[in-house]
Amino acid sequence: MDVEHVAGLPHPRLRPFVTRYSGYRMRTEPGVHRGLPSRSLTLVVTLDGTVDLPDGRFAALCGGLHDEAVLISHDGFQHGVQCDLTPLGMRALFGVPAGELSCTTVGLDALGVPDVELRERLRTAVTWADRFACLDVVLGGLVRPVRQRPEVAWAWQRLATGAPVGEIAAEVGWSRQHLSARFAAEYGLTPKVVARVMRFERANRMLRGERRPTLTEVAAACGYTDQAHLNRDWRALCGATPTEWIAAELPFVQGGEHGQGAQWPS
């Protein structure tokens, strides 16, 4: 296995919309990789080949929030750049709510970005730092004024702290049903599902750490009732238990443990 993975931060002006850049170049055995649910949308530009999904092949793509693993086929060589986008970033960069891409993937050209030109610019850049700087310029040029319901933005922030949905609804003065409908219209998933995804993401980050905790420790730290609850949730969201995922994929994704993104290639 030959894996190169380089992470970088976007320009400060972009960080409310893009949380991380990840450059990757890897040679592995051909197979199928799981793109895991997370709180980020995923923008990928390949430098070689394509990203092969059940619904198509893409040289450059943007994938929305999702609540189950996305299966990515590969021939053993992957080379490109991944950008982790916040939901607000969809409005700022592309003028649409994140909910429009929920559980789906589109080519970057469908969002009005000249993907062929962007891909060529990234290919001609000499270093990963140069490629990240190129993304700063291109994405920075897309930023537009953003309007979003403050109640749903507040709900997202409170979910990230682990607050229960009923408490959040009371804070914004809405019923749970109204909050759920407004929230899903903006993000594509209900508050309950997003809370579940965020908890899964926290557990996933713990398992990628330098000192891998026991599953019992992960379950307790992330708010699962017990290890059996952790296993059930992982099987629903990932398609495998934590033990199965570690055996199949952790060496493949090692190096991306600090990221927030959907972990498509990294």
TrEMBL record:
<keyword id="KW-0805">Transcription regulation</keyword>
<keyword id="KW-0238">DNA-binding</keyword>
<dbReference type="InterPro" id="IPR050204">
    <property type="entry name" value="AraC_XylS_family_regulators"/>
</dbReference>
<keyword id="KW-0804">Transcription</keyword>
<dbReference type="InterPro" id="IPR009057">
    <property type="entry name" value="Homeodomain-like_sf"/>
</dbReference>
<dbReference type="GO" id="GO:0043565">
    <property type="term" value="F:sequence-specific DNA binding"/>
</dbReference>
<feature type="domain" description="HTH araC/xylS-type">
    <location>
        <begin position="149"/>
        <end position="248"/>
    </location>
</feature>
<dbReference type="GO" id="GO:0003700">
    <property type="term" value="F:DNA-binding transcription factor activity"/>
</dbReference>
<dbReference type="InterPro" id="IPR018060">
    <property type="entry name" value="HTH_AraC"/>
</dbReference>
<dbReference type="Pfam" id="PF12833">
    <property type="entry name" value="HTH_18"/>
</dbReference>
<protein>
    <submittedName>
        <fullName>AraC-type DNA-binding protein</fullName>
    </submittedName>
</protein>
